[in-house]
Amino acid sequence: MLRTVRKIYLRNIDVNASSPSQTPINPKNFIYFTFSGTTQTFQSGYLGITDSTIQGSLHIKSSLLEHPLLTKKILLTLTCTHAAHWSVGETHVRKCLKTLDLAQTLFTSNAHQVLNDCEFPFVFQLPSTAVGSFKTDACKISYQLEAKIYRKGIWYQIFPLKKSTYVPVFWHAFPTVGMYQPITQSNILNSKYQWSFYLSQTHITPNEEINARLNITILKPHVLIKSIEYGLKTYVHAKVHANKFLGKLYATKTKIESLNFINEHNLLIRVPENVISTTNGPFIRVEHKIKVKVVLSGTSNIRIEQPVIVSNAIPAELLHTGNLLLTKN
Question: 8 and 138 in contact (C-beta within 8 Å)?
Answer without folding.
Answer: yes
